[in-house]
Structure formats: structure tokens, C-alpha cells
Amino acid sequence: MTPARKAPRTGSRAFAATWWGQAWVDALEASTLDAGRLSRGRTYARKGMVGPVTATPGLLRAEVEGSAPWPYDAAVHLRVLTDAQWDTLLNAIAAQAGRTAALLDGEMPADLVDDARAAGVPLLPEPAELDPECSCPDWGYPCKHAAALCYATATHLDDDPFWLLALRGRTKDAVLTALRTRRQARTGPVPETGETPRGRGVPARDAFASWNGAFTPPPPEGAASAPGEADTAPSPLTTAPPPDAPFTLADLEALTRDATQRARHLAAGHTASLTCTPLNDAVRLAATGIDENWFHQLVRAAGLPPNDFALLVRAQRHGGSAGVAVARSPLTPDPATMAAARTALADPDNTDDTGSAVRLRTWRNRLTADDEGVQIRLGPDNRWHPYTRETRTAAWWPCAPATADPVAALIAARTATTPH
After folding, report:
1. CA atoms of 170 and 259, how far apart (whole Å)
2. How many CA atoms lie within 13 A of 26 on its CB side?
3. Per residue in 185-224, is it b (16+ CB within 10 Å) or e — as a string?
4. What is the DSSP letter of 47?
5. Mean pLDDT (the chain, rounded)
6. What pLDDT, on a 0 to 100 scale, did the predictor assign at position 399?
7. Residue range 77-102: average pLDDT?
8. C-alpha–C-alpha distance, residues 286 and 313, integer Å
9. In sequence order, which residues have a C-beta less than 8 Å from that of residue 92 and are 6 or more positions away?
């Protein structure tokens, strides 16, 4: 979170003092966004109408003052890098020690950006990448409030280049930890015997792939074990952690149960969790029904506002990891799938309570019935995730399990908005 501040007062190029901040402005003004609304957004930003800006993976958010008595919730979406792209970028940073030092000094090395771009990693935004949205009634693309947020962001990028890395999906701490790991790998190679040095460990994906032992999955929970078969449940922990430890014996037992459950899933062939990011893992743990203290600790560790973290937890419960991906940022869908969904929802049998045809607004992977306050989003799992709009904040929240049928998803969203 950064404090609100006024942007420079003259010229669009005056919004940024550094070349990487100006690159953000250039990407904004070279895009297909409405030039007239960008101009009004510049005025709003210069007047200091943009509140504190929050930067999270793939999302910028701030409240922006407008003509209404309350501020509007404006956001800008940016594509998050894949794990493979992050590996390429981190390797490029670690290849030259001076690059890490420059980042810590508040500088974005130009040669790093060029090397990353040449390797197919867009660190700075490309002209078509910035996706603004806002809770105001203006359907412009962007509205002046989202445009103001875009310009105000440039001044924050000047101060901290790690903002760009955070927007692309990794926090400053995560990046520095990954760079330290790479430096240790360079200075302390694994012995030729293949033995892993104590304390270093290996990625879960590699450990699972290298395991060749025979395994018989345990019976479903509640089923009786075969005669002579050992109990597969972990033995209770009996040694308490030190008094000054930040965790309790109950915490360790909960993590042991979680690890056992994940191992069962891996043995059954469900390997998606092997590539789970720290944020996704925190959301997954929170969705299992942990106690309130754990939940608050995970919120702090994730670095997200509590409401944003709670939204992802609900998305996890309704749609798993795909549901979290849908909630975090808009996706680029298959046009044929979107067209088929619109056709199905336009069928005369799929009407609202008044008997009129469903009126839908399409944006990226989202189909929205604004007059009903319901929305369905197409996920990377090719399922439709139902959402409803919260009246107080106008924010969209997951409301029902995902389904492959867009009609069923829309009905589920409508049902969730019906008073009981």
C-alpha cells in the first residue's frame, strides 16, 4: 500500500521521472483505450483524486473520487507471468549480480528488460495488456476513474521497480528469496553422487517423479482396512515445539494431516498441487476450514487485503485452483466457447422472471447480466464460475460451484441472489 499523492501537473510525460515509469505511460497511451477518457483521467490524477494504490499479482486497485458522494473502486489488470517465464526472468537477473543491486537501489536495468523481452518475457506492459475496469456507471473503456489510476501508477513505479515484479506475479520477498536460492546453487553445487545436501531439499515435482516404489492407495476415509494392513493415518505428534516458536503442536498436527491428504491425492494421480504457488497454497489451506488465528496469519503472509484474500478462499471452495485463477484476473477465452455460451443463454427457454430475453454484457471471459447483478466467468478448466455483485461495494464474489453448463451457472448465480 502506498500513500496517495498528486501527480506532476503538466504534460503526460511528466507523470513519470524514470524511463520504466514512462514506459508504463507509453504503453497506456499507445493502447486502444479511449483517448478522450485518458485525457480526463490525467486531469483527475493531477488533482489528487486517486486514493492509496494497492498492487497485487495481476491487479492494481484504488478508490478514485468522482461526481458521486462516495469514491469509485477502480482497477487495472495486467497479465501474470507463467512459472516458466519467471524462471527465465530470475535467471536473467541472477546472471549479473549488478542487476539485483540495481533493483534494491530502486533502478530497473534497461539491459534486463531487453534480455527478458528477447526471451519472450514481457516485464514492462505491452500496449494491449492494460485492462481497466471500475464500479462507476460509465461503460467507457476506460472510464476516467480507471484512467486516472493508470496515470497515478506511473509515479509509484518511479519509486519502486519491484512494483512491476509484483504486478507480474511475485512479491519483492519472493523474488529476493528465489535469487538467493540461485546464488546458493551456483556456490554450492549438488555432489556428483546425486545425494541432496542436508537442508536443501528438492522440488516436490522432482521428488514425486523420481519415486519408483509400489504403492497401494489407502481405502476411502471411513472404510475398514484389510486384515493385517497397517493403519495409514500418521502417528500423533508428541513433542511440543519450543516455547518461543511461532507455531503450536496443534499447528504441526494440522500441517501433518494436510500433507497426508495431499500425498493421497498425488498417489491417485492428482499432481496439480506440485506446481502450487505460495499464494495458492495459502488460499488452499484457508479453504480447508482452519481456525481464525491461522486464517489471519495466512492473510498477513499473503500480503493481500483481508477482503481480497477472503474472496480467493471462496473461489477456491467453489472452483478449486481454476476458481482462484478466475477470481484473480480476467482471462482470454476461446471465442468459439464464448459464442456457444451466448447462443445457449439467448435461447427462449432461458429467460428471467419477467419472461424477457437474458441481456448480457461480454468482457473477456465474463458474461454479465448487470440488471440482475449476476455474472458467469469461463475458467481455464472450461467450466463456468457463477458470481454475484455485492450491493454495498459493487464487488463481484463467487457464489456457487463451477459447472460446464453456462445456463446452469447463470441459474446458480440467480438462485444465490434470491432471498431465502
Report:
1. 25
2. 10
3. eeeeeeeeeeeeeeeeeeeeeeeeeeeeeeeeebeeeeee
4. T
5. 76
6. 92
7. 86
8. 6
9. 99, 112, 115, 116, 119, 121
Domain limits, the chain: 12-181, 335-417
Q: Which helix (H) or strand (E) holds 363?
A: strand 361-363
How far is Cα 186 from Cα 335, in angstroms, rounded to an integer?
45
The per-residue pLDDT for range 325-336, each reduced to its tens digit, is 899 888 888 888
Measure the CA–CA gap between 257 and 285, rounded to whole angstroms: 11
> How far does CA 123 lie from the centroid of its chain?
17
Out of 114-118, 292-296, 364-368, least confident range? 292-296
**CA gyration radius, the chain:** 24
End-to-end CA distance of the chain: 39
Higher pLDDT, 29 or 408: 408
What does the block give as the cell for 412?
446458480
- The type of residue at 359 is R
204, pLDDT greater than 60: no
Beta strands across the sheet bearing 361-363: 361-363, 366-369, 374-378, 384-389, 396-398
- Whether pLDDT at 227 is above 70: no
Q: Is the pLDDT of residue 220 over 70?
A: no
In DSSP terms, 63 is beta-bridged to 73
Please give the Cα distance from 252 to 240 (Å, whole number): 9
The pairing of beta strand 72-77 with beta strand 131-134:
antiparallel
Place of cell 528438492: 202
